[in-house]
């Protein structure tokens, strides 16, 4: 469940793709959101919130939602989209929040960026005893042949599902997680899939020629398969993997 590519990816590269990220990345199934929010937490922190794709799903008009994001361009996109949510600068390893001040800390497509021991300890500091850490990833379902070919063309690394997936790395004081895997389908266009590829941090680090090559390879895959060619709406299968950890 990594988005890196050959060790060259830097989280800072998201600064350059904040706008396209906000409009091209998929949302999350409501079933996964409800599972992570089980117990009706009053204060929820969305860490590595990016442009707020998951943050907006946490709001109910009653609970307090705080977005923590290190990238200034990403925070600007989030504030423009959901101005009623407090967005603060910070990261999983360092949050500007009081001790024992949150009931749930969520990392959506973000835990793979953290220093695991440091982030685990920081989340434990911010959570109240009995509070939860939630991790969630959208994974392309590469049990489907054309989706696996798409992943190869994208040069993607790790954000796929092939029937099994390892638990995320986690540190003290968290133990074994509860797990949820939700299959669903994103209805999208070829242009939206290519925009999704262009929103990725590793893509921003490629040369212009390399970017053109990747985009052309993705387009070729989509044109080659009966389910994705001819300008039709594409049904891209995903599995959303979620994990819940309880703070002792």
UniProtKB/TrEMBL annotation:
GO terms for biological process: methylation. GO terms for molecular function: methyltransferase activity. Belongs to the methyltransferase superfamily. Coiled coil: none annotated. The lineage of its organism: Bacteria, Bacillati, Actinomycetota, Actinomycetes, Micrococcales. Residues 45-133 form the Methyltransferase type domain. The keyword Isomerase does not apply. Keywords: Methyltransferase, Transferase. Pfam families: Methyltransf_11. This is Methyltransferase. It comes from the Bacteria.
């Amino acid at each position: 469940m990594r988005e890196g590519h050959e060790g060259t990816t830097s989280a800072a590269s998201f600064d350059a793709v904040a706008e396209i990220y906000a409009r091209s990345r998929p949302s999350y199934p409501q079933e996964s959101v409800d599972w992570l929010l089980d117990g009706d937490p009053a204060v929820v922190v969305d860490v590595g919130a990016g442009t707020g794709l998951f943050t907006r799903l946490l709001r109910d008009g009653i609970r307090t939602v705080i977005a923590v994001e290190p990238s200034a361009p990403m925070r600007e996109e989030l504030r423009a989209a959901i101005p009623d949510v407090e967005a603060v600068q910070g990261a999983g390893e360092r949050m500007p929040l009081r001790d024992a001040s949150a009931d749930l800390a969520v990392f959506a497509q973000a835990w793979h960026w953290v220093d695991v021991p440091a982030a685990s300890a920081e989340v434990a500091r911010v959570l109240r005893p009995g509070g939860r850490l939630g991790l969630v990833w959208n994974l392309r379902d590469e049990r489907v042949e054309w989706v696996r070919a798409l992943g190869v063309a994208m040069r993607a690394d790790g954000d796929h599902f092939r029937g099994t997936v390892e638990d995320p790395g986690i540190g003290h004081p968290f133990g074994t997680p509860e797990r949820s895997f939700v299959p669903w389908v994103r209805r999208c266009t070829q242009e939206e899939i290519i925009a999704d590829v262009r929103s990725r941090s590793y893509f921003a680090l490629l040369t212009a020629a390399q970017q053109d090559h990747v985009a052309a390879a993705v387009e070729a895959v989509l044109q080659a398969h009966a389910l994705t060619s001819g300008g039709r709406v594409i049904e891209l299968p995903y599995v959303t993997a979620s994990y819940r950890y309880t703070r002792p």
